[in-house]
Specification:
Blueprint lengths: L3 H16 L9 E6 L4 E4 L15 E4 L4 E3 L8 H10 L5 E4 L3 H9 L8 H4 L14 H5 L2 H13 L13 E3 L5 E5 L2 H24 L8 H11 L12
Antiparallel strand pairs: 1-2, 1-5, 2-3, 3-4, 5-7, 6-7
Helix pairs in contact: 1-7, 2-6, 3-7
The chain binds 5-O-phosphono-L-ribulose.
Length: about 240
Amino acid sequence: MLLQRLREEVLEANLELVKRGLVLYTFGNASGVDRDQGLVVIKPSGVDYDKLKPEHMVVTDLEGNIVDGELRPSSDLDTHTLLYREFTGIGAVVHTHSEYATSFAQAGLPIPAYGTTHADYFYGPVPVTEPLKDEAIQGRYVHETGAAIVERFRQPGREVDPLAIPACLVAGHAPFVWGKDAHDAAHNAVVLEAVARMAFRTTLLRANCEGVSQALLDRHYFRKHGASATYGQRTK
Ligand SMILES: O=C(CO)[C@@H](O)[C@@H](O)COP(=O)(O)O
């Protein structure tokens, strides 16, 4: 079977979303990309997670043309493929409607970096897109959803590195999260929901919370990420 291993990884990531309570019914999807072959493996649309098997996954090229699969690909395919084309360092994308992250998206608010849990995974606030315009919604809606994410990350003067902050909230919709592979993307989605829940409660306790300092953000982020990362490494 074409891309057997990637199909299994994408299936595991989809099931992880269910196991961690990030999706209801079929409200979400995960995909992964094989960069060497330029192929994407994505969950089929509307199929219950408990019925999913590797052979149900749909394989497309990076433009979303179906290469292999009997079922329709996720209705969010064009967002996934646009993210793969534009953020060339990522290997997988996850979309959920997890409650707290989606609440921030619906409010049109970024998730502030309030503490070290956030800083361990996201090097700054998790951004939110501008609301999609009616023409975009009535046109190539799913593509435009991805375009809104890319536009937010490349906004002049407010650029965001997609490898340092592997998530974006789509205003009025929900989060898209990515990672180096399917396991990593699902893991980031789980943590995103946890930090969104904590941020929501932090805001309730203290409306004008200043958030984590730059020093604490640097200390926590860079001990897990980048060339000087030490987290989880053995000492000699
Ligand atoms: O965003 C939404 C619904 O608002 C979709 O992600 C969700 O229904 C899942 O669709 P698919 O089953 O992947 O086609």
